[in-house]
Write a structure and sequence with these properties.
Blueprint (H helix, E strand, L loop, with lengths): L42 E11 L3 E15 L11 E7 L2 E5 L1 E7 L14 E8 L21 E5 L3 E2 L5 E3 L6 E2 L2 E3 L7 E6 L5 E7 L2 H5 L7 E7 L11 H4 L4 H5 L1 H6 L3 E6 L17 H17 L4 E11 L1 H12 L6 E5 L16 E6 L17 H10 L4 E6 L5 H17 L4 E6 L19 H9 L3
Parallel strand pairs: 1-11, 14-15, 14-16, 16-17, 17-18, 18-20, 19-20
Antiparallel strand pairs: 1-2, 2-6, 3-4, 3-7, 5-6, 7-10, 8-9, 12-13, 13-15
Length: about 450
């Protein structure tokens, strides 16, 4: 993992099937371990490439080897059997499954069906379904420095028979851990007027980074993590679920450049809130409100105060309903997933655009009953209707392919517009949410229809 300062102050934030295969052979390496003269020279560094995924959290998905010179496979491909990768995590060493190998110009995975281009990196992709693929334990990141070894066990030759990479006796251990997008967040902390401290991560849009004196005003997305991410690592609010990284991805930032502020509730868990959850804890919520207010004030020339958004899952959804009711004139829209809240407070937020979603069979935060005596999303949507809001409802499977899932969302949005409704509610049919019925957010933050809708809202 790239090193980041533990604390900063708030002010500082101013194998293609059709391609010919590259042949391999078991030719022994020179006895001194040197690369063959025809190869690209020695390995200079080895990096792990990780990915924040919607359902399986944070995974090690590839190893990137950097060579001294450019690798040109002459249009061929490298058989996965040419490389062996082992991971030593928690005192146990086990093999990882190599799925694809290709050259590239940078240390990043190429998702195309015919990946790679001539460059000084070799990308060794790994099967994300491996039992030892995870980059995080129960809460904290796993110690991955030098945890992986990769060894070339067969020569790699071009289709013409020229040696491109020669096998050798030595294994290379990783020097660093790279997490695309998450690594672009700065780390900071904020201490409120009562002395309570919240860590946070912040993504700053490229235009602001290039020119901090720009007159451009950007939206602010505040993400509220779930109960499983309460920790002191200032990391798992980014890596445990695909929520904050959704809004910082290059493709989304090109479309909707925005600040993304992701605070983390510290340990020990402050459980003094009115229903025993965290974002409604008086200390946490007070610090969160001050953090948002202070950030907006310190960036008064750069934050569009008419486009402040709240997104959150599970207890983060609970935090959204509570915070909206406390500050009903601050936020332009919200995305609460698998949340619960105070039905009596819904009358204060009928004017706020909301797109909520929840699995019908959620056992952790029941769809109707909620938690700690406060009802779930279905009951809250009924309370909003009773208070005068028009709620547009839809239900479908949570395991539909992305295109079909988004088509359903698009149809629901058309229905809402026809009804002049600014509150939408998606329910997921029982038995269709993968991994666990509670993880209803797995497709929420990959749903471009929903995210486009969010950024279209303003006060």
């Amino acid at each position: 993992m790239r090193s980041i300062p533990r604390r900063t102050v708030l002010a500082v934030t101013a194998g293609a099937v059709a391609a010919p295969a590259v042949s391999t052979s078991a030719t022994a390496a020179p006895s001194d371990g040197r690369q063959a003269a025809s190869g690209p020279g020695p390995v200079l560094r080895t990096d792990l490439l990780t990915q924040v995924t919607p359902r399986n959290n944070w995974l090690v998905t590839a190893v990137a080897l950097q060579y001294a010179h450019r690798i040109d496979l002459r249009g061929g491909t490298v058989p996965p059997t040419a490389f062996q990768v082992q991971a030593t995590v928690g005192g146990r060493t086990a093999a990882r499954t190599v799925t694809r190998v290709y050259s590239n110009t940078s240390a990043e995975v190429d998702d195309r069906s015919r990946p790679g281009r001539p460059g000084d990196r070799l990308i060794v992709e790994l099967d994300p379904k491996d039992a030892n693929a995870r980059a995080v334990g129960t809460t904290d990141p796993l110690p991955l420095d030098r945890a992986y070894s990769v060894r070339q066990v067969a020569d790699v030759r071009s289709p013409e028979g020229e040696t491109v990479l020669q096998a050798g006796p030595f294994a290379h251990r990783n020097d660093d851990v790279i997490t695309p997008v998450a690594d672009d967040f700065t780390a900071g902390s904020f201490t409120d007027s009562a002395g309570f401290e919240l860590d946070f991560r912040l993504y700053q849009p490229a235009g602001f980074r290039r020119n901090p004196r720009t007159r451009t005003r950007y939206p602010l997305v505040v993400t509220l993590h779930g109960g499983g991410e309460v920790a002191d690592n200032n990391m798992t609010q980014l890596t445990s679920n695909q929520i904050a990284v959704t809004f910082a991805k290059p493709e989304r930032q090109r479309r909707n450049p925005a600040f993304v502020l992701s605070p983390q509730i510290p340990l020990p868990r402050p459980m003094d809130g009115p229903d025993g959850t965290d974002w409604t804890d008086a200390k946490v919520q007070g610090a969160l409100i001050e953090l948002i207010d202070t950030f907006v004030r310190e960036h008064s020339g750069h934050v569009d105060t008419g486009r402040l958004y709240l997104v959150g899952l599970s207890s983060g959804g609970r935090g959204i309903y509570s915070l909206l009711a406390k500050r009903p004139d601050v936020f332009a829209a919200a995305l609460p997933t698998a949340g619960w809240g105070d039905a009596a407070a819904m009358e204060r937020i009928t004017h706020i655009p909301i797109w909520a979603d929840h699995s019908v069979d959620d056992p952790v935060v029941p769809y109707r009953e909620g938690r700690f005596g406060n009802p779930g999303t279905w009951t809250l949507m009924n309370a909003l209707e009773t208070a005068g809001a028009r709620v547009t409802r839809g239900e479908w499977a949570n395991d539909l392919p992305k295109t079909e899932f988004e088509a359903r969302s698009r149809a629901l949005l058309r229905q809402a517009r026809d009804a002049r409704s600014h509150v939408l509610f998606t329910s997921y049919t029982a038995g269709t949410t993968p991994v666990s019925p509670h993880l209803s957010w797995a497709q929420t933050y990959e749903n471009d229809v929903v995210i486009d809708w969010l950024f279209a809202q303003s006060r």
